[in-house]
Structure formats: C-alpha cells, structure tokens
Amino acid sequence: MAKPAGFSPYTTDEATEAEDLLEVAAIACEAPTGEEWEHVEPHDYETGSNEEGWQ
Q1: Which tens digits make up the pLDDT trace of 5-52?
Q2: What secondary structure letter does DSSP report for 13?
Q3: 44 or 1: which carries more pLDDT confidence?
Q4: Checking phi first, is residue 48 left (phi over 0); if not, alpha (psi -120 to 50) or beta?
Q5: What is the C-alpha end-to-end distance of the chain, expressed in Å?
Q6: Separation between Cα atoms, residue 4 and residue 8, nearest integer Å
Q7: How far apart are CA 46 and CA 55, in angstroms?
C-alpha cells in the first residue's frame, strides 16, 4: 500500500467485525450444493504473509 495510513480506518474495533465477510463465499457455495466449500487461501490474512501485496 502506497500510504499505509489509509488503511487505519479498517483497523478499528468495529471494522474487525468485517472478518465475517470472509465466510460469505463458503456459505454461498454450500447453500445450494449442500457440500462444504474446500478452499485454502494462498496467503494467511492474519499473519500478513503476502508482504508483496502490501507494497
């Protein structure tokens, strides 16, 4: 990210509830099929392992 300070609004306590959005795709897939969505993210959002994506 060119200006990391621009990300600060998304680090508030209220914004942490947005983590629930990470489950939307799985729920959307499972609802019509009845099968669990098996997907492994290439990067762990909790560790910031995608350093290149933040530059």
Answers
A1: 777 776 777 766 777 788 888 889 899 999 998 888 887 777 777 777
A2: T
A3: 44
A4: left
A5: 5
A6: 7
A7: 17
- Burial (CB count within 10 angstroms: exposed 0-12, middle 13-18, buried 19+), residue 17: exposed
Q: Where are the alpha helices (DSSP H) in 1-55?
A: 24-33
How remote is the C-alpha of 19 from its chain's centroid? 6
Residue 16, classed as helix, strand or coil, is helix
pTM above 0.85, yes or no: no
| Residue 7: predicted pLDDT | 72
Helix (H) or strand (E) holding 2, with range, is none
Q: Hunting for tokens 């997907």 — which residue is that?
A: 39
